[in-house]
UniProtKB/TrEMBL annotation:
Protein name, UniProt field: ABC transporter ATP-binding protein
InterPro entries: AAA+_ATPase (IPR003593), ABC_transporter-like_ATP-bd (IPR003439), ABC_transporter_ATP-binding (IPR050763), P-loop_NTPase (IPR027417)
Family listed: Belongs to the ABC transporter superfamily.
Taxonomic lineage: Bacteria, Bacillati, Actinomycetota, Coriobacteriia, Eggerthellales
Main localization, broad class: membrane
Keyword set, alphabetical order: Antibiotic resistance, ATP-binding, Nucleotide-binding, Transport
Length: 300
């Protein structure tokens, strides 16, 4: 099967180690593909290459077999895009902007636009300049999805959205996937990628570190337990026989993978005042999977 979105050995070098280097990936029809990496890793540069806003120094970027730079007008007829920074047409109201964009995209049926406005509880009547970051983001999301495009590129889609709206966004992506859309989204938030994506590429310092299925990532992800002991003596006793445990303030942290059984039974032989668990953060996952330090380009 031919991929819908493809980058082959793409390099855009801004000097000083900045940019993207030898990036290759392929997104199949109907797939939701995550592009995960810390600040400055090269997510936006990659997205802008796909949008045909910039031409790579070397390598090939294509959508449906067409060159993203040379054929951008044709590609964009069936493409929705959410930029990382929405700073356009500030003087227009949200309503005027959406109508203007619908006109540009030749969308005649505005029902989907109204549905999306309702979904995100968006009040588009104010001037974009006066909107909060989250409200602008909603305008951008409505704009990206209102034409029910076959391909959607989203650069940090939930930035500025509150948890309820983040969860509406996740539902929307899953609904669009069922419709058959091919979606690529960049993020530095593990959760939205985990809940929406079939596969994920990790990018760091402009280079792809790995491309994995979400199932494989989930399997390799561990839990971090924070344990507060009933006394300092109990904490010392635990630390003395558990080299993997790290002291963290008045508690200790233990990373546990696989079955919890052994960890829980062992812990029950100590005096425990409090116990909480969390998923590994993106940085910890990076460190765990690739022995990396989780930092971006390192030159920001
Ligand atoms: N036009 C440009 N000129 C020079 N350097 C650039 C340009 N655009 C991007 N860069 C650099 O390329 C690197 C990757 O930037 P990019 O915006 O793609 O990161 P990102 O992964 O999207 O990060 P964030 O999560 O912070 O948005 C950064 O070091 C950035 O400073």
């Amino acid at each position: 099967m031919n991929p819908v979105i493809e980058l082959r050995d793409v390099t855009k070098d801004y000097g000083g180690g900045r940019g993207v280097f030898d990036v290759s990936l392929a997104v199949e029809q109907g797939e939701v593909f995550g592009f995960l990496g810390p600040n400055g890793a090269g997510k936006t540069v990659t997205m802008r290459n796909l949008m045909g806003f910039i031409k790579p120094g070397s390598g090939a970027v294509s959508i449906n077999g067409m060159d993203c730079f040379d054929d951008r007008a044709k590609i964009q007829r069936d493409l929705g895009y959410l930029p990382g920074e929405i700073a356009i047409m500030d003087e227009m109201t949200g309503t005027k902007f959406l109508e203007f964009m619908a006109g540009m995209k030749k969308i005649r049926d505005l029902r989907r636009m109204r549905e999306l406005i309702e979904l995100f509880e968006l009040d588009p009547s104010r001037k974009i300049r006066k909107m909060s970051k989250g409200t602008k983001q909603k305008v951008g999301l409505v704009c990206a999805f209102m034409g029910s495009p076959g391909i959607v590129l989203l650069d940090e889609p939930t930035s500025g959205l509150d948890p309820l709206m983040q969860s509406r966004f996740i539902d929307l992506v899953l609904e669009e996937k069922r419709r058959g859309a091919t979606i690529m989204l960049s993020s530095h938030l593990f959760e939205e990628v985990e809940r929406t994506c079939d596969r994920v590429a990790f990018i760091r310092a402009g280079r792809i570190a790995a491309i994995e299925t979400m199932d494989d990532v989930r399997k390799s992800r561990k839990r971090v337990f924070s344990v507060a002991f009933s006394s300092e003596a109990e904490q010392s006793r635990y630390l003395a026989s558990h080299a993997e445990a790290r002291a963290s303030g008045s508690a200790i942290e233990v990373v546990v993978s696989g079955l919890m059984d052994g960890f829980v039974k062992d812990l029950a032989t100590y005096g425990v005042a409090d116990l909480s668990a969390r998923e590994q953060s993106l940085e910890e996952l990076f460190l765990h999977l690739y022995g990396m330090d989780g930092k971006g380009a390192g030159n920001e």
